[in-house]
Design brief:
The chain is an alpha+beta fold. It has two domains: 37 residues; 151 residues, FAS1 domain (Roll). It is 43% helix and 24% strand. The chain is built from eight helices and nine strands. The strands form two sheets. It has a seven-stranded mixed sheet. It has a two-stranded antiparallel sheet with strand order 1-2. β6 and β7 form a beta hairpin. About 9% of the residues have low confidence.
């Protein structure tokens, strides 16, 4: 009887190990397929995941710490974490650093929240507008396209060679340096200048 019990326990243990191993293989395969399916883009030394929202990705970019600080100061974290979709033209830290001395510090003050919000929402277009769509808009517009921002004013798009140029209402021009960084709630295009309404 003891021998039968020992054999039974041995068989059960073997089955349990095989099942656990099989389960691990299934889970790893599923995870690998998901990771393979999720095409990331590197921005600021970090992978941007299409399954994460704009804020979840932006906080990981070393090139966008100023932008993230500004978004927090303006109280736009919840909005840009929402369903959207949004198209964000995201200036890098160097773009903010190129502004006149003291501009960023001044904008981050609580009493300038309205002005900061206006500038940040001027970098956002409602909807999901990828690079292909922008190129089509420029082509259909005879070399120029306009799009209304969340702030209310328009941005102008054109081409300089193969580069998409975004021009603000003051005539300042920013180049799209990284396009089509897909998010769960839209798309980000990295730009090299801060746009001003």
């Amino acid at each position: 009887m003891d021998q039968i019990s020992t054999n039974f326990n041995s068989i059960m243990k073997t089955l349990k190990l095989k099942f656990t191993g099989l389960l691990a293989v299934v889970l790893l395969t599923a995870f690998g397929a998901f990771a393979q399916k999720e095409k990331t883009v590197m921005v600021g030394g970090a992978a941007m995941y299409p399954s994460k929202n704009i804020i979840e990705n932006a906080v990981n970019s070393k090139d966008h710490t100023t932008l993230v600080a500004a978004v927090k100061a303006a109280g736009l974290v919840e909005t840009l974490s929402g369903p959207g979709p949004f198209t964000v033209f995201a200036p890098v830290n160097a773009a903010f650093a190129a502004l006149p001395a003291g501009t960023v510090d001044n904008l981050l003050k609580p009493e300038n929240k309205e002005m900061l919000t206006s500038i940040l929402t001027y970098h956002v277009i409602p909807g999901k507008v990828d690079a292909k769509s922008v190129m089509m808009m420029i082509k259909d517009g005879g070399g120029k396209a306009m799009a209304k921002t969340v702030q209310g004013e328009e941005l102008t798009f054109s081409l300089n060679g193969k580069n998409v140029i975004v021009t603000d209402s003051k005539g300042n021009m920013a180049k799209v340096t990284t396009a089509d960084v897909y998010q769960s709630n839209g798309v980000i295009h990295v730009i090299d200048k801060v746009l001003m309404p």
